[in-house]
Amino acid sequence: MRLLHTSDWHLGRSFHRVNMLQAQSAFIGRLVATVREREVDAVLVSGDVYDRAVPPLAAVELFDEALHRLADLGVPTVMISGNHDSARRLGVGAALIGRAGIHLRTDPSAAGTPVVLADAHGDVAFYGLPYLEPALVKEEFGVEKAGHESVLAAAMTRVRADLATRAPGTRSVVLAHAFVTGGEPSDSERDITVGGVASVPAGVFDGVDYVALGHLHGSQTLTERVRYSGSPLPYSFSETDHRKTMWLVDLDADGALTAERIDCPVPRALARISGTLEELLADPALARHEEAWVEATLTDAVRPAEPMARLTERFPHTLSLVFAPERGPDDPDASYARRLAGRSDQQIAEDFVAHVRGAGPDARERGVLRDAFDAVRTDDVVREVAR
């Protein structure tokens, strides 16, 4: 069975101030063309269809168009909700849409109920695990403490229990939206940390033939059977080195698989350039970036006059301007933002405690801080879901 694995469409999202709807439409066109030309048997969409719980109308219209085009091909699609989606909104009409071969899986309670498709070698069971927010699903899965690993492990227990009831030789595919250990994140993914832990081990998914992951925006192979497709378009300059692709996966009769990357159409290259303003304007080696979307970091000791206007004369698609004067690590004028770069909210809070009282928090106090951050983040999720 030939599968096309994609995820993280983020319909409705912009790239800095650039509207990406046209580029997202071009991606849908490539997806449909690939399904038709490569004779795909099933399309997998592993969450974050939309960029937010209540997407703009234009994004909803593009999603509707995508569903119609996929249904017209007569090729089944299995789709789950991600942490950016409103599972309840995305799942409206799922039973009716399912009659057209578009199988939306947004309800955590249905984790052990697969979409079963068949080829010449028998059945393939597709289990859709929508994004499982631990605080919201721990009762459904009967876990004592909310955590990503515990709820995913409980969901996979249901998957294995169902798979055990099926005919010998039934192949299995799991769609999941999670941060799996070993994956490389980028700046454009929303933080899903709970209890100081964001990731889960790949071993949680042991026992199935293929795991189609969503959430991280870079295409990645964690194991032969556990892969991220990544987002089809860039959504931050941290993705400058990404190759945006989908996975074309062939699942053989015995569960052996081969995988091929299918390139997605990217509207414009990304470039990160750094130096003084005069260096950036004069360096001939930067000519290759003149038509790219550019993030420019200026290292001038004193902020130059009208830097954006001058930069866009050479790099007309400059979208981001960062000021980072070259200073020694002990320079008292080093910016606060630079001192905090790469540190988590928990680490910043612990540093603040140490600064105020001369000693950092003990284990109990670290737990209190962690619980406070988790509570705030969970409240945000609940409000988003309720919209």
TrEMBL record:
Record has Chloroplast as a keyword: no
Gene3D superfamilies, per the entry: 3.60.21.10
Taxonomic superkingdom: Bacteria
UniProt-listed GO biological process terms: DNA recombination; DNA replication
Keywords per UniProt: DNA recombination, DNA replication, Endonuclease, Exonuclease, Hydrolase, Nuclease
Boundaries of every Nuclease SbcCD subunit D C-terminal domain copy: 267-355
Residues annotated as domain Calcineurin-like phosphoesterase: 1-218
Name of one Pfam family that matches: SbcD_C
GO molecular function: 3'-5' exonuclease activity; endonuclease activity
Keyword Hydrolase: yes
NCBIfam families in alphabetical order: sbcd
Family: Belongs to the SbcD family.
SUBUNIT field: Heterodimer of SbcC and SbcD.
Reported function: SbcCD cleaves DNA hairpin structures. These structures can inhibit DNA replication and are intermediates in certain DNA recombination reactions. The complex acts as a 3'->5' double strand exonuclease that can open hairpins. It also has a 5' single-strand endonuclease activity.
Record-given protein name: Nuclease SbcCD subunit D
Lineage start: Bacteria, Bacillati, Actinomycetota, Actinomycetes, Kitasatosporales
Gene that produces this protein: sbcD
